[in-house]
């Protein structure tokens, strides 16, 4: 129950962030709504398609789409307020990332997958909404170049896995612990601008690109 | 039967438009054929994958792919003629958009989905061929920035739904009415340059993009 | 058995090439690993999703992902060595392309598909890893503009089909013949810069793009 509420907060926040990104690229209302939907539920959809895990979440609960649409339309009405709530959105985005990652890990675990697929499922669920958003906005996905983002998804999934499989902790308690640790880690990563090492490879082919 | 003929005209027209777009980006013959195929059947394929609706149309009828290939190759032979037929292609593109939207709505309805998913299915089927074409051509999808396009798909799906579910009209008559109304609406949208409101959000992050 | 070894060599080589491409776009470690995975197994994943062929190869054998990750991380450590091995990588890339194409053709054949779908499956499996890599690196896919690449996939699939269906040759012998011919053809195409004709279409819309 609490998870459902958190999930709805998460997709709404991701959707509204997506709507702002669409606004930065001067999209029309359809573009805004589309980018919002993709940002919010794109990661989970890709995960479900890759794992053959049907029906998709939003096909089962189409009202999630409605909620995201309302959030996106709201965003176009009050962009100046959105801008001032930057800190809140950074927090909600962190919450969304961590929560989606845990959900991804849980679904993979329920499908009987092992550690590697659980981590992959967490990363896809947590990160791919943003990747798709950036692809549709025609830019290199930020998560490939920015501070610890996918890394948080991996660590959260690993923590969740260890808590349940090795320490025998109940699923909902493990979810809670992973959620709190993950959000703190993500906020620390933003604050200290922690990031993965960047691989800058320049060669003669560079000129051809 | 008439629908199948219209469908083939629709995918051929969308494919030829896609081939022209590929030509504008100086692609080789494979690129031209690929963009043509994606433009013509990409929307329906994404819909089927998201809904787990197997087998996909072109897997069941691979000769659709052959037809699109011929159209694409033909386009590379007579580009100057294509340019002069602009009005015809605008009409065929409108026909394709509306027809694909109705097909999408019908498939979702036959799968037992409600109104929201029927509209989503119509939009994906009608619009996503063009979205994929633009992604592969490395530009922001035109439908996110242009005159009423996705909006037509939504209105057509809504009309189709109301005609069948509330007015109890036969499916093939509803298809016909929605088709005629949709094409007229789309042509009017082009003529009067009607569009959805554009959301232009500029902030300090703009510089970072 | 030999095929499995060749397959692992193929995905590792494609993954390392992908990692270099990511390095050219200054991605962080996650971006490098992601692009490497997508380059190596993206084509096969798209094929399986489109054909509803579950579970995907890497879901069944997650250790393939681990191997690709190691290759990608290795690449970031020794980029200068990679640069000097260009000839080796061109060969491995040719091997990967041809091998993936044959695997794609074989899977489609085992699903009972006819010639058209077998060729499509070969092209998707052989070429789409590179297409996805370029999409995520935000550039027009090279295979749409470069020397004979998709063409090799088509010819290899056709040869494989003819050898088995018309000449009644054993599957593993047909695989071997198609593999050798394909690699030679691809290397000749690189050497002689053979390519498909380019379709360069300029019109007044060009300015609008």
TrEMBL record, chains A, B, C:
<feature type="transmembrane region" description="Helical">
    <location>
        <begin position="115"/>
        <end position="136"/>
    </location>
</feature>
<feature type="transmembrane region" description="Helical">
    <location>
        <begin position="171"/>
        <end position="192"/>
    </location>
</feature>
<feature type="domain" description="Glycine transporter">
    <location>
        <begin position="91"/>
        <end position="163"/>
    </location>
</feature>
<dbReference type="GO" id="GO:0005886">
    <property type="term" value="C:plasma membrane"/>
</dbReference>
<keyword id="KW-0812">Transmembrane</keyword>
<dbReference type="Pfam" id="PF03458">
    <property type="entry name" value="Gly_transporter"/>
</dbReference>
<comment type="similarity">
    <text>Belongs to the UPF0126 family.</text>
</comment>
<dbReference type="InterPro" id="IPR005115">
    <property type="entry name" value="Gly_transporter"/>
</dbReference>
<keyword id="KW-1003">Cell membrane</keyword>
<feature type="domain" description="Glycine transporter">
    <location>
        <begin position="5"/>
        <end position="75"/>
    </location>
</feature>
<feature type="transmembrane region" description="Helical">
    <location>
        <begin position="63"/>
        <end position="82"/>
    </location>
</feature>
<protein>
    <submittedName>
        <fullName>Trimeric intracellular cation channel family protein</fullName>
    </submittedName>
</protein>
<keyword id="KW-1133">Transmembrane helix</keyword>
<feature type="transmembrane region" description="Helical">
    <location>
        <begin position="31"/>
        <end position="51"/>
    </location>
</feature>
<keyword id="KW-0472">Membrane</keyword>
<feature type="transmembrane region" description="Helical">
    <location>
        <begin position="88"/>
        <end position="108"/>
    </location>
</feature>
<feature type="transmembrane region" description="Helical">
    <location>
        <begin position="148"/>
        <end position="164"/>
    </location>
</feature>
